[in-house]
Amino acid sequence: MHFKWNYKYPTPEEEQAAKELGEKLNMSPILTLLLIRRGITTESAAKRFFRPQLADLINPFLMKDMDIAVDRLNDAMGRKERILVYGDYDVDGCTAVALVYKFLLQFYSNIEYYIPDRYDEGYGVSKKGIDYAKEQGVKLIIILDCGIKAIDEIAYAKEQGIDFIICDHHVPDEKLPDAVAILNPKREDDPYPFKDLCGCGVGFKFMQAFAKNNGIPFSRLIPLLDLCAVSIAADIVPVVDENRILAFHGLKQLNQNPSVGLKAIIDICGLNNRELSMSDIIFKIGPRINASGRMENGRESVDLLVEKDLGMALRMAKHINEYNEQRKDIDKQMTEEANQIVARLENQKHQSSIVLYDENWKKGVIGIVASRLTEIYFRPTVVLTRDGDYATGSARSVTGFDIYSAIKSCRHLLVNFGGHTYATGLTLKWDCIKEFRMAFQQYVDDHILPEQTEANLKIDSVIDFKDITKRLHNDLKKFSPFGPGNPKPLFCTLNVYDYGTSKVVGREQEHIKLELVDSKSSNVVKGIAFGQSASARYIKSKRSFDIAYTLEDNVFKHNAIQLQIEDIRPAEDEKV
Predict the structure, then answer these.
(1) CA nearest neighbour of 382 among 436, 454, 451
(2) What is the pLDDT of residues 157-207, one digit of tens each?
(3) What is the pLDDT of residues 474-532, one digit of tens each?
(4) With the CA atoms of 166, 171, 174 and 180 taken in that order, what torsion angle do they form, in degrees rounded to the nearest 10?
(5) 280 with 231: CB under 8 angstroms?
(6) Residue 38: CB partners within 8 Å, gap ≥ 6?
(7) What is the pLDDT of residues 76-110, one digit of tens each?
(8) CA-to-CA dists, residue 8 to 3, 462, 550, 572, angstroms
(9) Which residues lie closer than 8 Å to 322 by C-beta, 6 or more apart?
(10) Interatomic CA distance for residues 96 and 93, integer angstroms
(11) CB neighbour class for 359 (10 Å; exposed up to 12, middle 13-18, buried from 19)
């Protein structure tokens, strides 16, 4: 992988502003420049950024239909109606269902939850789910992380005497379902000031409004914030504004007093006795919650997330972990098969997108495979598998390219589609795939920018090893939680050398454990370069090179810093 490094040197005005802000905050100008480039230019804005306050959460009643939704929920409780909390089978859907169910269960017992089966019912509201609700005497369904396009299904439910409150964050169509209330900040007619909530976030706002309306103290909602943090990280929504507040306090809850179910997952991941980050959720916790919906049924994940007994939760977490191991094996096999197809398609290298299909691929894993291919080839990617006469699939995008709009442009060929800028699901007739591929690729050709199909690294700051201090590292931690909109700062140091002790490590000798020096100091700095053993020979040649990296805690040595190397390239004077 050869990355293009992008770095904009600070202007004299930026340097002066960073120096002045640094003096006010008692912080290095290296870091205050990062603040300024994030649009944080004053001392008060910096304090709000570093210490997000729950008191600054937006009034939930600013969201369109919120008052109607709360009134309908109050009526259901007053009339002792049976309520069904229904959600998608991914992390966002499962955490949203767990959050709403757990909160309402404290005040009302005539309530249950439902997760559709990915293989039997497919995505979103299903006729089978509505029939189940009718059999159980349900009068109100609260649907989370889906439902915004379920026009026919919700009309069918209405015929059965069942009302719907939709809590969704996916892009709506022009026509909306005939639900009692539709909570979705992406509605064109919604004045809610923050548009990037996840599905669990919309569910949280609903519960915040319900609590406010019924005089329930906000403190009763705080134990549920760990579910919000898990959802924000796993659904890869921007970690800014209201999401930053929810993620900040959710991580605090996850680290200090997680719910029993999440505690069991943390235990099974081997993450005990360490400070959990958004990365731990993305790479460890989230995939395990997702695994039951990918391999069997997402209900098992919700069962775990609402469990109160730790012994039972640990047994359930172990079972879900087994699903995750199966998922990894299938994911690896499918990615290898997809890579072989791409390798055979010579013209694919010259095209701006990838569309692959195989009728034997497992429906629950194609989204992960699409993500893998996007990371490898830097192309918007659609992966499809067969479901009877239909092809069902997932689309994933590259930075800056709106794949939802690309899929929407092919809607004349689609049975169904939905999602957001970087991830979309779609269904079409199996015999329409070739026509879809041509239409999709034409749209991408016409709209994608050349730099969006390149592997880019955005360098935040060029520093020397002498600048890497414990204080810098500790101040840097205040920038967390990291994610889209607030990425972990990426540093670059030029002209570094192997200290003589760097070595290749890993089961397949695929990583490099580095000990490095630069020309400005005698500091020996330790680092790890995952999957970059191809650079080992150059590093050992005693020639200088440049590194791009993030600063991390050394998990094997208390209070020590380690560089996580993102890329290695020959120094400018060595390239000649």
Answers:
(1) 436
(2) 999 999 999 999 998 988 999 999 999 999 999 999 999 999 999 999 999
(3) 999 999 999 988 999 999 999 999 999 999 999 899 999 999 999 887 789 999 999 99
(4) 10
(5) no
(6) 49, 486
(7) 999 999 999 999 888 999 999 999 999 999 999 99
(8) 16, 10, 18, 17
(9) none
(10) 5
(11) exposed
DSSP state for residue 221 in the 8-state scheme: T
The single-letter DSSP state of residue 284 is I
Through-space distance between the first and last CA atoms of the chain, rounded to whole angstroms: 21
Q: Which amino acid is at 402?
A: D
Q: Quick one: CA torsion of 100, 169, 119, 382, rounded to 10 degrees?
A: -150
Question: Can you name the residues that pair with 261 across neighbouring β-strands?
Answer: none
Give residue 576's pLDDT band: very low, low, confident or very high (50, 70, 90).
Answer: very low
CB neighbourhood size of 127 (10 A): 12
Long-range contacts made by residues 272-277, C-beta under 8 angstroms, separation at least 24? 274/555, 275/553, 276/251, 277/251, 277/480, 277/481, 277/482
Q: Are 95 and 305 in contact (CB under 8 A)?
A: yes
Distance (Å, rounded) from C-alpha 12 to C-alpha 14? 5
Amino acid at the residue 462:
V
Beta-carbon contacts of 7 under 8 Å, excluding residues fewer than 6 positions away, are: 458, 459, 462, 492
CB 266 within 8 A of CB 230: no
DSSP letter at 329 equals: H
Question: For residue 355, what are the β-bridge partners?
Answer: 382
User: One-letter amino acid identity for 443?
Assistant: Y
Q: How far apart are CA 557 and CA 563, in angstroms?
A: 13
**Phi and psi torsions of 382, nearest 5°:** -120, 130
Instruction: Decide which of 297 and 265 is more confident.
Output: 265
- CB distance 224 to 262 below 8 Å: no
Q: What are phi and psi of 547, to 5 degrees?
A: -130, 140
Close Cβ partners of 92 (under 8 Å, ≥ 6 residues apart): 145, 198, 199, 200, 231, 234, 235
| 283 token code pair | 């790479």
Go through the chain and tell me how many residues it has. Answer: 576
The crossing angle, in degrees rounded to 10, of helices 225-234 and 260-268 is 50
Task: Give the distance, in angstroms, between the CA of residue 565 and the centroid of all CA atoms in the same chain.
Answer: 22
